[in-house]
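Methods — Computational structure assignment.
A single polypeptide chain was analysed. Its primary sequence is given first, followed by the predicted tertiary structure written as structure tokens.
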Amino acid sequence: MKTTIWHPFPPLFDTNSRVLILGSFPSVKSREQLFFYGHPQNRFWKVMAVVLCSEVPTNIQAKKELLLSHGIALWDSIARCEIEGSSDASIAQVVPNDLRPILEAAEIRKIFCNGKKSWKMYCQYIEPVTGRPALCLPSTSPANAVWSLERLTDVWRESLTPYL
């Protein structure tokens, strides 16, 4: 059953952010934890740890410090939507997030989308407002099982490194 939900937590960024990574909308686990990529099967934190030559962060404060210390901002393309559980495929009635607070506060060099749903929402709703294209990276979601952790890490490293 679909439920209309507002995004329950704020973006992660500061004035030193140079890269913005956008997900689509928080999973049930992320909504429970009130932070990004909270599902233990999501590979985002493992990928970022390898890309940033760091240990995998184990708590929210360590996750924030890892990203902010490397100039990475984190947010989602969608502010409100109808969704069934955590399924991106079920998302409807989208209201996009306003990226202006991030783009005005930080010198974002590049915007990346974590997966196709985020990228489609960005292209449809946000790029026409910002005029800034985003690059779609393969999703770190466990639903994207065709991509191994090693393959994900290679693509993410190659894409992010020039902007860090």
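Note: Residues 48 and 57 are 9 Å apart (CA to CA).
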